[in-house]
Amino acid sequence: MWSLVLILTPLLAALIILIIPGLRKVKSIALTASLALLVLTCTLWFTGTGEKQYSLILPWIPSWGIWFHVGMDGISFLMVLLTNLLIPFVILSGWHKDIKLPGVFYSLILLVQFALTGVFTAKNAVLFYFFWELSLIPVFFMLFLWGGERRQSVTMKFFIYTLFGSLFLIAVFIYLYFQAPSPHSFEYQNLLNINLEPCDQYWVFWFLLLSFAIKIPLFPFHSWQPDTYTVAPVEGSMLLGGLLMKMGIYAMIRWMIPVLPSFSLQWGYWIMIFALAGMILFSVIALKQNNFKTFIAWSSLAHGGLMGAAIFSFNEYALQGVLFQSFSHGILIVLLFYFAQLIEERTQTLNMAHLGGLKVAAPRFSALMLVVFLGSIGLPLTNGFIGELLMLLGLFSYHLWAAILGGLSLVLGAVYMLYAYQKTALGPANELTAGFTDLNPRELVFILPLVALVLLTGIYPQPLLTLTEGPVKELINLAFNIH
Amino acid sequence: MLSLIIIITAGLLLLFVGLGRNKDILIPLAMTAILLAMFFQISGAGRDSALLNGMLVFDPVAVGFSVMMMVITLLILLLGVEYYADMDRNVAENFALLLFSLTGAILMVSFNNLVVLFLGIEILSIPLYILAGGKKKSYRSNEASFKYFLLGSFASAFLLFGIALLYGVTASFGLDEIRQAMPRFMDSGLLKTGVLMIIIGMAFKVAAVPFHFWSPDVYEGSPTLITAYMATVVKTAGFAAFWRLLDLALIPLPESLIWIMWILTFLTMTVSSFTALWQSSFKRLLAYSSISNSGFLMLVLLSSDPMSPATLLYYTFTYSLASLIAFSVLFSVKKASGGSEQLDIFNGLWKNNRFIAFVLAIALLSLAGIPPLAGFFAKYMVFFQAIRQDFLWITLIAILMALVGIYYYFSVFRFVFSSKGEPRTIPYPLSTRIVVLTAVLLLFILGVYPALLTGLFP
Predict the structure, then answer these.
(1) Helix A316-347 to helix A292-313 angle, to the nearest 10 degrees?
(2) Are residues A299 and A254 in the same domain?
(3) Given B372, B383, B402, which is nearest A174 (Cβ)?
(4) Phi-psi region of A476 (alpha: psi -120 to 50; beta: other; left: phi over 0)
(5) Does chain B have fewer CB atoms within 10 Å around its N or its C terminus?
């Protein structure tokens, strides 16, 4: 029941915003609604609401095996928590800006929230697909209408590329539907009981992998991502990097590996090699970037590569690590994009080569940015550390070399992150950065809570880990025992 | 039967009313007739299940399709209020011909005898040949009319030839008799030729590649309202008739002819989708999109399944609603920009008129098959039944073509949301708004709850 509330509230808020005129009003309503959702989510968490209270089954098109079945276990809850945590900050990030057509813009953000909550809670394949594809539309329009230079061609590429993957998803689900034991149904539990012949249904696995790998994206399906992150309005980049990317990771853990475990184990090795090679490649490319937003995009790709590799080692450490890292990466990348926005507003440029010396001009700004950068590297006491550590442990128990290659992520991450920090914050100030004003209270309201979370979950990660521990074990048992 | 009589009589009545100068009552009259016919069709009053010795059968599928086509014609008539607003001569004839054509369409979805099929096709087509040339002074319109007439007759000739050969083999025009006789003559060359001719004739009518060349020219040259009628009602009637023919009589087809259907489906989907990518005229884009949707409908015919009639009905209805919106927007914007039909007339539409840009976006999203709009479940049903019947490869091709479709539908957004284009006012009268809003609402409702329509045929 609670899942339905979580899904429908953003939709309702989005519709209300569409009718109401006035920039201020729109923003306040959007923020209030999203904060209310955050409070609700946290309350549900702290009161220890169980899976039963979340689940809801309504007949949608029963004769086709399609039910409106939503529910949440710890994994879903973590993702929903991340969504509802980040959306208020996404809305807050443009608080001072004069956005054209605010009603449409903010309702698009809330529609993304609606679709994402649906994706993370759906327990029926068609319902999942419905939300999965729906989530693209608001993002498309956000980028297409509010993006920067070259927005139209970049957005089209992003849209067609990601749809290319998802369209095959529906064919795969229909195919699995007919393979599932009778009575046929798109219910998640039913799809888990499929026993595919290993030899002749490879394509099912590859299509699933394709659609999810494009979403994350993993090497070599990444070419849409850097441009898209760069061109998108900052809210759009936050949504894409903070949340939409997690859809791919969630879908792999939930919809691919448990449904097709034997294929995943058989081919995971190769996918891991690709993902890790991609991670190293992306790290090197990130090192060479001068545009701050493009740099964030490549660094996010590198993190995605490690997460993708860890998923396929498929043990408890790795999955816990991936989920934790999804959570922390979401927070960190939203902060990074916020810093990018601050820099662009103050200096009119994102080119890191022209920056430098922010440490002198804006000490608070630089200090907080350093925390975020260190979090991205995965330094102890930050949340990035926990995720990376667990993922590396997982990779290690899979294979030594996987852990060694994965460990490069920490090293390379440190190199490109610190190099970027050096270019922006250290060194002497120039005429661009000399007059850089330090953070004002409004900006601190955005940054401090999130930075606090970075440190808090880094020092005491247990609540989040407890959340996913049970479901992860269950998932692994499902994958290994039944099949 | 009663509904057919009502529509024909109303058509004749319109011709007489048109003699006087009272243009305003034409549309209400035509609409009342259709509403009345719809009522009788749904309630079943005056509807015998089999008529004329079983030549016409109003089974649930026939009723479903005929009511759906009446709904669409109603909406088109409402669009006509604006369309014929500044025309003084021959308005009554236009509406009368539309009603006559609708009669043919209803015959086409309810025939149980090849003679009725042929009659239906002719009654549908002949008024359309005239309507396509509705703009008497326009060179393009005359070309469209002539081309349509010539190729339409050509197709009818093929069809007739096929029917004759089939009669030669099975000694009957009745679908039941033909179906019983079919297995005995499976190897007969005469039968195969006959069925092939019929398939070619029908492929001409529904504009399947490679028999589609007339379609973009006719769509482009005809008056926009008539194009909208062709893309919706005529297409629905064509596919419903094709399905009926195959399902009630000709299935299972001989092996070699299944291959022909396969090739037709494949070509229709691919050729039209790729050609649509290069169009700079919105009307031609819609024409090619219509052909490419024919490709998906051909896939429904190819993967014959108990679900087929529901899929066809849902697909054609939702496609028709979205097309109607697109055509009405095209008409209004075209009027405001001096008669051009190029895509660049949409430049800056978003800034000029939010409402029109919004409904056009909804229409294109539905055509592209994006949830929660009805186009999503339409495509879903096609894929679903094709995969159920083990047509995996062609389904994957269909999915790729759906992607190409998304690309060209979405590329219209480049114009709609571009910052170019000078401010202008685009008139959008109430009658058109009603039609468009109804269509948008239906697209949302059917998209979220498709069982409303698909539940009609258990």
Answers:
(1) 180
(2) no
(3) B383
(4) alpha
(5) C
What lies within 8 Å, CB to CB, of B150 at 6+ separation is none
Residue (of A83, A51, A79, A479) closest to A255 by Cα position:
A479
pLDDT in tens, A142-167: 999 998 888 889 999 999 999 998 89
Nearest chain B residue to A154 by CA distance is B414
Quote ipTM for the complex: 0.91
A37: its two tokens: 């959702």
Strand partners, B57: B50
CA distance to partner chain A, nearest, from residue B382 (Å): 11
B403 with A137: Cβ contact below 8 A: no
| pLDDT of res. A483 | 45
* A108 — pLDDT class (breaks 50, 70, 90): very high
CA distance A160 to chain B (A): 7
Q: Are B408 and B289 in contact (CB under 8 A)?
A: yes
Residue A356 confidence (pLDDT): 82
Two tokens, residue A265? 């184990």
Of B371, B403, B454, the CB nearest to A134: B371
Every domain of chain B and the residues it spans: 1-156+209-247, 276-458
The size of chain A, in residues, is 483
Hey, of B307, B392, B393, B399, which one would you mutate to test binding to chain A, going by the most A CBs within 10 A of its CB? Answer: B399
Q: Are residues A237 and A364 in the same domain?
A: no
pLDDT digits (tens, 9 = 90+) for B15-39: 998 887 777 888 899 999 999 999 9
In the block, tokens 């007919």 appear at A178
How close does chain A come to B375, measured CA to CA in Å?
A: 12
Domain boundary among A213, A240, A259: A259
Whose tokens are 């991609």? That residue is: A278
User: Are A171 and A288 members of one domain?
Assistant: no
Residue B155, CA distances (Å) to B108, B158, B204 in order: 15, 5, 6
Tell me the DSSP string of B335-401.
Answer: HHTTT--BGGGGTTHHHH-HHHHHHHHHHHHHHHT-TTSHHHHHHHHHHHHHHHTT-HHHHHHHHHH
Q: Measure CA A259 to chain center.
A: 22
Residue where one domain finishes, among candidates A228, A259, A290: A259
Residue A61 sits at the chain B interface (C-beta within 8 Å): yes
Cβ contact, residue pair A174, B417, below 8 Å: no
Domains contained in chain A, number: 2
**d(C-alpha A140, C-alpha A160), whole Å:** 10
Cβ-defined contact of B365 to A152 (cutoff 8 Å): no
CB distance B367 to B409 below 8 Å: yes
Q: Residue A230, class by beta-carbon neighbours within 10 Å (0-12 exposed, 13-18 middle, 19+ buried)? A: buried
The range of the structural domain enclosing residue A314 comes to 267-483
> Among the listed ranges A391-405, B80-94, B407-421, which one has the minimum average pLDDT value?
B80-94
> In terms of domains, do A278 and A184 share one?
no
Which phi-psi region, left, alpha or beta, contains residue B339 (left: φ > 0; alpha: ψ -120 to 50)?
left
Three-state helix/strand/coil letters over B254-279:
CHHHHHHHHHHHHHHHHHHHHHHCCC
List residues of B whose CB lies inside 8 A of any A CB.
Answer: 350, 365, 370-372, 376, 380, 383-384, 387-388, 392, 395-396, 399, 402-403, 406-407, 410-411, 413-414, 417-418, 449-451, 454-455
